[in-house]
Amino acid sequence: FVLSELWRLKAGGRLLTSVYEEMGGVSGALRRRAEQAWEECVGRKDGAGPAADAEGRTEEALRLLSGLVRVLPGSEAPLRRRLTREEAGEERWRIAEALAERRLLVLRGDPGEAQSVELAHEALISAWPTLAHQVAADEEFLVGRAELGHDLDRWRKADRSPDFLPDGLHLRNLRHRLRDREAELNPEERDFLGRAQRRERARRTGRRVKWTAVALAFALFVGLGTFLLHQSRVGAQQEAEGRSRSLSLLSDQLAQQDPVKAALIA
Prior knowledge:
Elements: H1 2-8, H2 17-23, H3 25-41, H4 54-67, E1 69-70, E2 79-80, E3 83-84, H5 85-88, H6 90-101, E4 105-108, E5 116-119, H7 124-127, H8 129-137, H9 139-157, H10 168-177, H11 187-257, H12 259-265
Antiparallel strand pairs: 1-2, 3-5, 4-5
């Protein structure tokens, strides 16, 4: 980029330091070239072809930029990332091809093979305002994707043990950061996240079944205790009534034989 600009702005066949400084050096040349390519590929308002829906095209292009950048857990410096055609989708891939024609991106792989695209220079991440702003705006998603990638790598190294799938609060945080953006993950990442979600649902179902069983057992215990207490009270009442009837009968019998004793019993 820089040499091309210097050559275009040369004076008398010479490359001048003053021109280099006016360009803003490497970052300035990258910025101008990137913004020009972006305007030509994404910012057109000619009403023709895919550019007719300018807002939708811009949104797709910005999502493309997010796919070309990655962050490492614990690191503040974003790095360029290789994005596959499958991840990008056809609309974003067409934009990537247009940007690659202007040497902003680099395409990898031949038609019919696995194809990918990446930034031509990592310096574009900081030198190109549009990309830098998109990285800042998508920080939560980029961090979530980085954490998911870290978890995926750990799971692979553990022979895909279910115990290494994200769960609980960590899984909820991941889903929050990746919300409505899972389509931008690669197939392996989506499969990994799906496994984690299914396992978490199964665990929640298991916990609900367990607590339901505990609640039922407690209810049965309380019910049985209440029943036994009621039976005990009924039995005591029946016993008391039986004694009362026996005494009454005895009193009646004695009344006929010995009125004094009958009065004492009554």
